[in-house]
Amino acid sequence: MSVWKKKDLLGLKELSREEIITILETAKSFKPLLFREVKKVPTLKGWTIANLFFEPSTRTRVSFELAEKRLSADTINISSSVSSVVKGETLLDTAKNLRSLVCDIVVIRHSIAGAPHLLAEKLPNVGIINAGDGINEHPTQALLDMFSMQERFGYIEGLRVLIVGDILHSRVARSNIWGLKKMKAEVSVCGPFTLMPKGIERFVKVYTDLDEAVINKDVIMFLRIQRERQKTGLFPSLREYHRLYGMTEKRMKRLSAKAVIMHPGPVNRGVEMVPVVADGDRSIILEQVTNGVAVRMAILYLISTVVRR
Amino acid sequence: MGRVEILLDGKGLRKVLQEDLVVPISHLCDLKNMVLVGIYTRGVYLCRRIHRYIKRTCGVDLPLGEIDINLYRDDFVRRFDFPRVRESTIPNVQDKVVVLVDDVLFTGRTVRAALDAILDVGRPLAIRLAVLIARPGREMPICPDIVGMHVDPGARRVYVELKEVDGQDRVVLR
To answer: Is the ipTM of this complex over 0.90?
Structure first.
């Protein structure tokens, strides 16, 4: 376990393998706390954390808020629909105001890639955590996914992970590919050609046939189809997408004996997978949700050891 | 580094542990009611040894806990480069007598943090404190119940070294 030195968590691209291990190990220590009678420690008592969500989110925001409260921090939540952003305030002005309110850590989700990086640069005494920036990265999601894999299999190195769906628009896929490659997992992707980033075959194996892709995989991670993109003609219909790239009971039979199904949520039932798969014994979707809190506690804790040094 | 003065060698340390800690601890209360909890790092290893001694001499397998007080400390950012968090395992303490074990009692801040950590998992009947070494310098109103050895190191510091962590058993001033 290496010494943590980063003030911010911006993406898996910026993290070393050792830093990823430090986060996963720390999260492992935090997890039992979630099942105690008193699910709280006083570690961040007196700290103020702002959650800035300029894009809709329920699960990530709630997970962060819970992690912050379990560490005894005071939290404020700002979402774009109710904040001054609709009145035309720029991101930098919002940041300056947060500095004046003396926040210690800012969690930010923004539709523009690089927004957290800008804040991190402009606020040198504030810890910045990326909760999803445009189509760039969603590091805490990838870290909780890796934590869930580590917990289920005991290792990540050599694990055969298949990511299925809209790879092109998915920050979850991007962060996972960065992270899993650093952890030496065997990563492959599957989806329609129209939803594949150009040149991705240089980094990971690419499948277009899901029936072939699922064979001999340990983890099959489905990405949410962002329904809003359906109108842009990247694939003909949700029904056809489901037929080609959705997990069905028939396809489940092709899986290896220990393979698990993951999904960052929320699941479009009947699109990425049929309900019996989402609710079945191979699915670890709800474990991912629990692990998300432990992983975010670990990240907040590690960052707090740097911010006030 | 300065001169190293050996206060206890391996044999001495084990003798103090056995005679001045294990014996009084085993008489603290009915063993059926006792829980042992060690504080990371060296308190945990001392605690495991005490646990083994009591099992051997009294035939009782006491519940054994280990706590990491990093999440409860009042000075964690100031004192350490990067306090690593280890998993705390605290057994059921409800209505039990908890014997808290650490290597050196100095300011009392670690014990203060450990008390908070224990009270977060239940309400023990009592908490007792057993330390191998007690030295002056308390900053909290904390008093040990069982002490292996009192030491006044002056401007120097007391270090307890244990085989499990340091490769050898001894207590030194440095």
So the answer is: no
